[in-house]
Write a structure and sequence with these properties.
By secondary structure, the chain is an all-alpha fold. About 30% of the residues lie in helices and about 0% in strands. The chain contains two helices and no strands. The protein has helices spanning about 5-15, 45-50. The longest helix is centred in the N-terminal third of the chain and has 12 residues, at about 5-15. The radius of gyration is 25 Å and the shape is flat. The protein starts with a helix and ends in a 7-residue tail after the last helix.
């Protein structure tokens, strides 16, 4: 079954509702990062932490 453009527009509106108004460029703000950049990834949980929670995940 194929839908025409009007039917597709209706289905989009039924699924997602009314779209919000567009944000005008003069209403936007420029973001300034305040956190220091991360230089390495976290190591993750320690072996002790994994062993202590093993029962939670069926291990």
């Amino acid at each position: 079954m194929e839908f025409n453009d009007d039917e597709l527009a209706f289905l989009r509106h039924a699924r997602f509702g009314e779209l919000p108004d567009r944000v005008r460029p003069e209403d936007t703000v420029e973001l300034e990062e305040t956190d220091a950049p991360r230089t390495r990834l976290d190591d993750g949980p320690s072996r002790e932490q994994l062993e202590a929670t093993r029962h939670l995940y069926g291990g």
